[in-house]
Amino acid sequence: MTTVVETKSGADQRTGWYRRMLEIRLFEDKVQELFMQGKIQGTTHLCQGHEAVSVGAVSAIEARDYLTITYRGHGHALARGMSMVAAYGELMGRTSGCCNGVGGSMHLTDFSKNLIGAFAIIGAGLPVAVGAGLSAKMRGTDSVALSFSGDGGSNIGTFHEALNMAAVWKVPVVFVIENNLYGEYSPIRETTPLDDLAERAKGYAMPGVIVDGQDVDAVHAVVAEAVARARAGEGPTLIEAKTYRYRGHSRTDPAKYRAEGELERWKLRDPIVILGDRLGLSDDERKSLQDEVQAAVDAAAVEAEQAPLPTLEEIENYVYAA
Ligand SMILES: Cc1ncc(C[n+]2csc(CCOP(=O)(O)OP(=O)(O)O)c2C)c(N)n1
Ligand SMILES: [Mg+2]
């Protein structure tokens, strides 16, 4: 296993990452607000705290590459370039949504961006990513697949089956575990016999890399290296990004099961602040970016909400009966 902390990415690109991470953070804050107002129904799984993983990893793949994400996937989708209107529309069940409003928060999907699925079933995205990677390989293209899963997800059967098959067939796929230390309400130490989930790579004879998930530069660097390996025909890599979710598991979970002070300690290493410091952004620059992004977030939510709900006929288009 290796740990990477350095990168050579350009300043402009990294300013874009800063902005995108801020967009994800403020997008999610607004989701909570809209949920409390009853404008978003069902459930939501917010990703504040994970922004460096989404942006660092997704910025390391190209448009021709494939991506599978999870139900905690708003940040992944925005990092892939989904518009906030399409994302808010989907969350509000409106026709402005990326799936015409029939998927909801857990299903931000857009085939035009090769974002081929957001999965609410734990571990379900990994075999789909392996299938996409295998298809690319069989068709003789150099596309790769990137697949996100959680620490809890690394205990499920499909995770192991997907890694095994990808390794045996040298499928061009990169698996990223977002280890945020909790699966629903259970701390990882009570469900998993390892601290470092990257060690699971050894069982499948592929490289296992641990990366600081609060550091977008580091995440980008390790994912870029794994993507290059996959593209060169050298097979899959497992990456474990160590991160933390600021909010509870879903909806209104107050996360009382967390140790006192744990959240505050993680916030001292906030991914947006870390990159802002590295870029040398002044307080004024941060404030004006924050205001600009907040205005865009507010406008996107209003625009998304103005679209109608899908009609019953439109919904029935996607319902199949045997
Ligand atoms: C197959 C399956 N079993 C159980 C669940 C219920 N469930 C939803 S989220 C979750 C925890 C997943 O934790 P993790 O993989 O760490 O992801 P995180 O929520 O932390 O991003 C569980 C068990 C599910 N969705 N799918
Ligand atoms: Mg987790």
Question: Could you characterize the architecture of this molecule?
Answer:
This protein is α/β, with parallel strands linked by helices and 322 residues long. It is built from 12 helices and 9 strands. It has helices at residues 11-36, 51-58, 74-79, 84-91, 125-138, 157-168, 188-191, 216-231, 262-267, 271-279, 283-306, 312-316; strands at 2-3, 66-70, 115-119, 145-150, 173-179, 182-183, 186-187, 208-212, 237-242. The strands form 2 sheets. Strands 1-8-9-5-4-2-3 form a 7-stranded parallel sheet, sandwiched between helices. The chain starts with a strand and ends in a 6-residue tail after the last helix. The protein binds thiamine diphosphate (TPP) and magnesium ion (MG). Residues 72, 120-122, 150-153, 178, 180, 182-184, 249 line the site of thiamine diphosphate.
Q: Which secondary structure elements does this structure contain, and how are they paired or packed?
A:
Elements: E1 2-3, H1 11-36, H2 51-58, E2 66-70, H3 74-79, H4 84-91, E3 115-119, H5 125-138, E4 145-150, H6 157-168, E5 173-179, E6 182-183, E7 186-187, H7 188-191, E8 208-212, H8 216-231, E9 237-242, H9 262-267, H10 271-279, H11 283-306, H12 312-316
Helix pairs in contact: 1-2, 1-10, 1-11, 2-8, 4-11, 5-6
The structure holds thiamine diphosphate and magnesium ion.
Major pleated sheet: 7 strands, parallel
Shape summary = globular
| Rg over C-alpha atoms, rounded to the nearest angstrom | 19 Å
| CATH superfamily grouping | Thiamin diphosphate (ThDP)-binding fold, Pyr/PP domains
Helix content estimate:
40-55%
Poorly predicted regions are 1-8
Number of helices: 12
**Average of pLDDT:** 96
Predict the CATH topology.
Answer: Rossmann fold
Please report which band the strand proportion falls in: under 5%, 5-15%, 15-25%, 25-35%, 35-45% or over 45%: 5-15%
Order of strands in the sheet with most strands: 1-8-9-5-4-2-3
> What is bound: which ligands?
thiamine diphosphate, magnesium ion
The SSE order reads: EHHEHHEHEHEEEHEHEHHHH
Give the distance, in angstroms, between the N- and C-terminal Cα atoms: 48 Å
